[in-house]
C-alpha cells in the first residue's frame, strides 16, 4: 500500500473527501452510513463547520491525490459555538431541522446536537479552550498518519499560544482512547458526560512529544 503524504492544509476541493471520511468513521470509529440516511448530517456537525469557519486549523493527509484523513478544530470553543450558531447553522438548518420532540432515532439525536452548539461549552473544560476532531479511513490507520496530523494541529495551536486542547470521544471507541493516551492526553471529569469521555492536553506545560 502506498504511503500517504505528510499533512497539508485543508483546501475547499477536499470537501467531498472530508464528508466521506467523517461519515465512514462516525459510528464508534466505524461506518455510520447505515445509521444516517442523509450522509451529510454528521459532517455538518463534526467536520465541515470547522473547515469553513477555521480552515487554518484544518489539515489532511492524502493518498493518490485524495484526502484519507483529517484533523480539524478550533482554538476557542466558546467563540466557535457562537460562530456556529450565527454563521454555520443558518446554512444547514433547512436540510437538517431540529426534531419536533424528544429525539427518537440516531438521526434525530444528531440533529438535536446540531441545533445546540452551546453544548460544546463546559465549565470543566475551561483550562482546555481548544478542541479537535481527528479521523482516518480504516485502510490508512496504524501507519503514523494520525500522529503526524496531531503534530501539525498542536503546532498550530502552540503558535497561537493556546493553553490547552480537549476532545470528546465515544467511550466505546477504545482504539481511539488508546491512541490519545499514547499522545499524553488525560481524562477530564465532566459532571454529565453522556456516552462521551473527555480528554485533555495542556499545551503550556512540558509534556510528551507527539512526533
TrEMBL record:
One of its GO terms (molecular function) is acyltransferase activity, transferring groups other than amino-acyl groups. Coiled coil: none annotated. SUPFAM superfamilies: Acyl-CoA N-acyltransferases (Nat) (SSF55729). Gene3D superfamilies: 3.40.630.30. The keyword Transferase applies. PROSITE patterns: GNAT (PS51186). InterPro entries: Acyl_CoA_acyltransferase (IPR016181), Glycosyl_Hydrolase_84 (IPR051822), GNAT_dom (IPR000182). This is Acetyltransferase. It comes from Streptomyces gougerotii.
